[in-house]
Amino acid sequence: MDKNPAFEQARQKMEETQDEREQRQKSGFKLVEAALPKIASRFEAPIIDTVSSYFGRKNPMASAAKPETESVWLLDNTAYRPVHPYPHQEQPWQAEFVAAYFQRGSGKDVSKFVADIADKAGLGAMGLPAGEGEKIIAQRLQPFVDSIAPAKYTHIALPHGTTHKLGPGARNAISAQTLTDLGSHSPGASMQSSTVPPSLVPHGGMLTHFAAPEGWAVISDIDDSIKITMTPSPVGILRSTFIEQPRPIPGMPELYASVQETLDHPAWFYLSASPYNLYTFLRPFLHAHYPPGTTVLRDASWMDLGGFLASLTQGTQAYKVSRIEKVHEWLPLRKVLCVGDSTQSDPEAYGEVARKYPGWVKAVFIRKVTDVSEMNGTEKNKDERFEKAFEGVPRSVWRIFEDPAELAQAVESLKTI
Questions:
Q1: Cβ neighbours, 10 Å, residue 63
Q2: What HEC string does the chain produce?
Q3: 267 and 331 Cβ atoms separated by less than 8 Å
Q4: pLDDT tens across 46-86, in order?
Q5: 1 pLDDT band (50/70/90 cuts)?
């Protein structure tokens, strides 16, 4: 988790596929990214915190986050029971706990950034009342401009009475660690936890969902799979992220409700190439429209808005495969349904995972996106693209759809697998 924006951007560039490169060039991403403003450094912590943060969790000079000066985000997670090679007894629950640390009240004047985004996104043509669009942009920009707080730690109180230390955060002010003393819980249950004191978390506590070793799991992309993001368009991304109210893809909430019922409440993982800055934007949307689950985002902290656009469109296949592999480590015995779309590298990522773990991925649903003009004239929706992406994967496993209603029978048939 010890990452910095320069390293992440370099790695994304190295992992960029030829298809991504061509799509970005066709849609003019580089021109828009270059024109977006750079945000002044978010690394404004005291020098001792900045230097000592390189020690990560072993930092001897770390200090506790305080509600007067810091705030903490706790990310929802999924608890699992490790699969023992000799399953003579049930293993205890464990889960990865992720926390992000910020300097409270450190947000900079965002007026220049608001004006730039309003201009690039064509706010004037969207018909919003005067000042309303700018207010929304300012609110959603805040997580991108708040200074991070490396070398901080906090304590989390679990419902059964134990308290655990989280952190300290590394240079990117994020901590991730596995806790095992989670108490006794039934599979399918959820528990809510918070920091000590609770006032450290301005957006509330976190939810832990308990998933037994066997059953179903759903790994779902977010952008243009279940949420309208307009990923192939830089202007579309800016509008859907910073101005418009988040909207579900028509028919997808109903489809996921059917999957939830048909597969007897599977474990849900919502996977996006968005940076974690968007967590507090995406979480309420997912809770409002889709079954509860764990949201998985990039753990880099961008200092320019061009980097945000690149995170959604560059190196997404390698990133998603790496996150799915972690889910496989946690739940290797589960049957998996993967859902994605044709705008990014979902077919290639899911095809790669299905070949690497034969029999784990039982079904793949790919939404063919036809309502974004930037998809016209590309190879992304052609049959040849899907055949290549799923080469070596049984044809019965993967399905391409445009209308979620097409999948009713396919979902029902999953009960027989």
A1: 16
A2: CCCCHHHHHHHHHHHCCHHHHHHHHHHCHHHHHHHCCECCCCCCCCHHHHHHHHHHHHCCCCEECCCCCEEEEECCEEEECCCCCCCCCCCCCEEEEEEEEEECCCCCCCHHHHHHHHHHCCHHHCCCCCCHHHHHHHHHHHHHHCCECCCEEEEEECCCCCEEEECCCCCCCEEEEEECCCCCCCCCCEEEEEECCHHHCCCCCEEEEEECCCCEEEEEECECCCECCCCCCHHHHHHHHHCCCCCECCCHHHHHHHHHHHCCCCEEEEEEEEEHHHHHHHHHHHHHHCCCCEEEEECCCCCEHHHHHHHHHCCHHHHHHHHHHHHHHHCCCCEEEEEEECCCCHHHHHHHHHHHCCCCEEEEEEECCCCCHHHCCCCCCCHHHHHHHCCCCCCCCEEEECCHHHHHHHHHHHHHC
A3: yes
A4: 788 787 888 888 899 999 999 999 999 999 999 999 987 77
A5: very low
**40 or 266, which is more confident:** 266
Two tokens at 273? 């190439």
Q: What are the pLDDT digits (tens) for 152-207?
A: 999 999 998 999 999 999 988 999 999 998 999 999 999 999 999 999 999 999 99
> Rounded to 10 degrees, what is the CA torsion of 307, 312, 313, 314?
60
Query: What number of other Cβ atoms are within 10 A of residue 61's Cβ?
Result: 12
| Pairing verdict, β 216-221 and 267-275 | parallel
Q: How far is CA 113 from CA 120, 144, 239, 242, in A?
A: 11, 11, 14, 11
Close Cβ partners of 362 (under 8 Å, ≥ 6 residues apart): 335, 336, 337, 397, 414, 417
Contact 400, 366 (CB under 8 A): yes
Backbone angles phi, psi at 114, to 5 degrees: -60, -45
Asked whether 134 and 141 are in contact (CB, 8 A), the reply is no
